[in-house]
Amino acid sequence: MLIQISSSSQFREVFKEQKTNDSPVYLYFYADWSGPSRMITPSFEDIAGDEKNEMVFWKSTQRVVRISQKSIR
């Protein structure tokens, strides 16, 4: 499952929900302008879209990084 995180409030909401879930989470921060991000993103989305995968994938732009760091402390 892939969850696109687009705001700090959404991050906090999803983070609270995930605390009660036993599934591991992979959090991917990317930047649209970054060459490595553009190379990795398609593979990340393929893996996240695999229905057999029990891991939860979060994807967010680098803009949410500072906000999310403060939210989980």
Structure description:
By secondary structure, this protein is an alpha/beta fold. The protein has helices at residues 8-19, 35-48, 65-71; strands spanning 2-5, 25-30, 56-61. It has one domain: Glutaredoxin. It contains three helices and three strands. InterPro entries: Thioredoxin-like_sf, Thioredoxin_domain. Residues 11-59 form the Thioredoxin domain. This is Thioredoxin domain-containing protein. It comes from Caenorhabditis tropicalis.
Identify low-pLDDT runs. Answer: none
How many DSSP-defined strands?
Answer: 3
Number of helices: 3
**In CATH terms, what is the architecture?**
3-Layer(aba) Sandwich
CATH class reads Alpha Beta
Observed structural traits:
73 residues; Glutaredoxin; Thioredoxin_domain; Thioredoxin domain-containing protein; Thioredoxin-like_sf
Quick structural summary:
The protein is of the alpha/beta class and 73 residues long. The protein has helices spanning 8-19, 35-48, 65-71; strands at residues 2-5, 25-30, 56-61.
Write the layout of secondary structure elements.
Elements: E1 2-5, H1 8-19, E2 25-30, H2 35-48, E3 56-61, H3 65-71
Parallel strand pairs: 1-3, 2-3
Pfam families: Thioredoxin
Domain Thioredoxin: 11-59
Protein name: Thioredoxin domain-containing protein
